[in-house]
Structure formats: C-alpha cells, structure tokens
Amino acid sequence: MNLPSYEEFCDQAMKNGYEEVIVREWKPNQVVELHQHEFKVSALVVRGNFTLTIDGVSRELSGGDRFELPKFKEHSEHYGSQGATFWVARNYS
User: Fold this and answer.
1) Which domain holds residue 74?
2) Per-residue pLDDT tens for 77-91?
3) 50: left (phi over 0), alpha (psi -120 to 50) or beta
4) Residue 15: predicted pLDDT
5) 0.70 cut: is pTM over it?
C-alpha cells in the first residue's frame, strides 16, 4: 500500500477546497448508527477496515481506500475487529 504522507493528504485537500483535515480513530467493532454531517467529506483509510452503508448499499473499506460523502448524506459505519484510522478532509461551505 503506497499512501501519501499526512502532509501530502492535507495539502491536496486544501487545494481541493477543503477547510480542515482531522485524524479519526475508531475502536474495534464500533458501530455508528445512521447519521449525517454538516460538512462534505473526503477521506482516506490508513489502517484497519470498516463497512460504510449509504442508501442501503454497503461498501467494505480498508487501508488505502478513499471515500467521499456529500453534506447531510445519511450513512452508517461498522468498524472491523481491528478498528480503523482515517484522515478526513472537511468542507463546511
């Protein structure tokens, strides 16, 4: 797996109009029920795995995978036995 550095991810996110980047750490087997965010998301999974469900369609994501979510898009998350870490770029506008 050939990931960009955190700094490279941040630089690219800012060039793409995102306002901040945070690191999210998720516990093993953690479940986040249906919810939404007040921001657009562009993220890169850097460790572990999880299932992202949007509109009833589930997608398995693991290290090296990217995903995006529009503002206010309802989704749920179920983290695997190792939990997960991903870098999340957020845009509030």
Assistant:
1) 6-91
2) 999 999 999 999 999
3) beta
4) 98
5) yes
| 26 DSSP β-pair partners | 84
76: which 2 tokens?
Answer: 């749920």
pLDDT tens digits, one per residue of 40-51: 999 999 999 999
- Is the separation of the CB atoms in 75 and 66 below 8 Å? no
Residue 41, domain member (yes or no): yes
d(CA 86, CA 75): 16
- Counting the structural domains of the chain, the total is 1
| Residue 17 falls inside a structural domain | yes
1 lies in some domain: no
The total of other beta-carbon atoms located within 10 Å of residue 25's CB is 11
Task: Identify whether 75 is part of a domain.
Answer: yes
Q: Whole-angstrom Cα distance, residue 29 to residue 9?
A: 26
